[in-house]
Design brief:
By secondary structure, this protein is α/β, with parallel strands linked by helices.
């Protein structure tokens, strides 16, 4: 994590979609490009994360899982973006959360400021996936930013050339990123006092 006096905020983006033309990954890439020098967002791909197996957890965790845990630990905050599959978040994202939520109640997710985003071609924008993510991250003791839900509907119309292009949606997400950054900086001030 960055030093308490530092203004730079390091965010880690995780997309719940493995699809090459993923709307969710496109949203994260767009956010990464929009951030100023005061903040940065790195996208961590989940392609190499195997299905969760408690027999392979702890010191026996796969290299890809250890890399994800380190990336989450070193990030000041997370931006998780998921499609909605069958009224819930993607299995890919849930699987990654299962890996990094260990050890229970002491994981790298504990107290980690987190912004949740869902993105879907449907008119609901993945609102049910968003709600499931919030419930799951709360169980992991993550610090989910309290704010109106960031749900992006009609994604096929709003993502052009692999980037989110809808100005109203971008303005809303910029506000959400501001809330996440404010949460992180507020925690830094508390830690420094």
């Amino acid at each position: 994590m960055a030093a308490a006096g530092s203004g730079h905020v390091r965010l880690l983006g995780v997309s719940g979609s493995l699809r090459s033309d993923s709307y969710n990954t496109a949203v994260l890439r767009t956010l990464s490009e929009r951030l100023s020098g005061a903040a940065s967002l790195h996208v961590f791909p989940l392609h190499e994360i195997p299905p969760y197996n408690a027999d392979c957890d702890g010191d026996r965790s796969p290299t890809s899982v250890r890399a994800l845990r380190v990336a989450v630990h070193e990030a000041d905050g997370l931006v998780l973006c998921s499609p909605e599959y069958n009224y819930g978040m993607s299995g890919v994202l849930k699987n990654a959360i299962d890996w990094i939520s260990r050890p229970a109640l002491q994981s790298v997710l504990k107290n980690k400021p987190t912004l949740l985003v869902s993105c879907s071609p449907a008119y609901t924008g993945g609102a049910r996936a968003h709600a499931q993510m919030r419930e799951t991250l709360s169980a992991c003791l993550a610090r989910v930013v309290a704010r109106p839900q960031v749900v992006i509907n009609h994604a096929a119309e709003k993502i052009i050339g692999g980037r989110l292009a809808d100005s109203a949606t971008l303005a809303f997400i910029d506000e959400a990123l501001g809330d996440l950054t404010a949460e992180i900086l507020g925690l830094r001030r508390l830690a420094a006092s």
